[in-house]
Amino acid sequence: MRVEKGKTLIARGELRIEGDAEVLGCNIKSFRSDKYVPIYCKSDCDIHVDGDYIVVDRDTIPDSWKKLVKKDWETLFIYGGVDSGKSTLATYLANKIKDCYILDLDIGQSDIAHPTAMGYGYTKGNIVSLSEIEMINGFFVGVLSPTGREARCLRGVERLWKEIKNLDAKKIIDTTGWIRGKRAKEYKLAKIEIIQPDLIASFEGTPTFLEDYEVFEVERGFVIERNRNERMKTRISNYRLWLENAETIELRLSDIMIKNTNLFKGKRIVKDFIQDVLGVEVLFVERGDDFLNVCVAEKPLITSEIVKSLKELYNVDEICIFKFEDLKDLLVGLYKGNRYLGFGILKEIDEEKIKILTKAKDFDRVEFGEIKFNGEKELIARIP
């Protein structure tokens, strides 16, 4: 199609550009993107699109973004709600700066890592998406939202920031869109206090809780908002990409560390009494300081009164009655030392071994997540 000078084509799919055009601050002649990308025509252009598109009669990059490039900062924290344009702004800045680290803290729609994880990487620009940046290191959280897991998320922020804060290049921090409510503000403020950015680029004006920091207000670009189903499809595509050419690896539990779970962390106790109470075969019972794990051959019918009585009898706060089969398809994070390698899918586990579908070949630590992925959809999982 012919797009006139001064207009912007916002498109996704397979694209090829003939003419003078700027794609998020850089000159790229062909690319593929699952997200909508703005292509500003500086001359009349012929653009071949195999996908969806709209044409806008202006440059959709706001003037505030262009001014932000020229401001004096070394560390920039991007603040904004869902689909406000945070990742698009980060991509634009990376293309203009051409020498920066990106720390992606958006565990729900992570680009540099994958959904349920944080990650950082280095880029010299010339990209249309942060997903093109190779992950240098990451942190597995195991959930899609920080709500209720703020402490674990902040541990990840602190660990990754400690690695990159003294590296010689500008740093851009992309974050989640969780900004509404007191807990969200406290969580954002805690991240900001860890990172201590020179400047906060805010899509939400200047919130009062950020009054002690330098805030630069930015406008939204031309945003095509995604609904929950579209965001889920993007995550599923991301999962599948990370699992391309994956293989099932079997390891002995004695050869690796299992983390982010109480499984196999308690002391084995006699199972006969609980087996009589539940009325099903119990494989083993383990008790920790504040938990009781009961592994069964089949799920029993159990009432809240029984759970309450067992908690009082064993003086624990948590009781998990589960089958090994319940853990099938669980997302797990894989590490070699302190290096995060990516995720895998738990396919089988028992008291001696574990089988994981993954592209990682050599890892010594497995961290349990709280999401299952069966190849088609995500499910919330309850783990010991």
Key terms:
seven-stranded mixed sheet; single chain; 384 residues; alpha+beta; Rossmann fold; 3 domains; 7 helices
Helix content: 10-25%
| Percent range for β-strand residues | 35-45%
Unreliable runs, pLDDT <50, ≥5 residues? none
Structural class comes to alpha+beta
CATH homology superfamily name of the largest domain: P-loop containing nucleotide triphosphate hydrolases
Task: Report the mean per-residue pLDDT as an integer.
Answer: 95
Largest sheet: 7 strands, mixed
Which CATH architecture of the largest domain would you pick?
A: 3-Layer(aba) Sandwich
**What is the CATH first-level class name of the largest domain?**
Alpha Beta
Spatial strand arrangement across the major sheet: 9-8-7-10-6-11-12
**SSE string, helices as H and strands as E:** EEEEEHEHEEEHEHEEHEEEHEEHEEEEEE
Separation of the first and last Cα atoms: 56 Å
Number of strands: 23
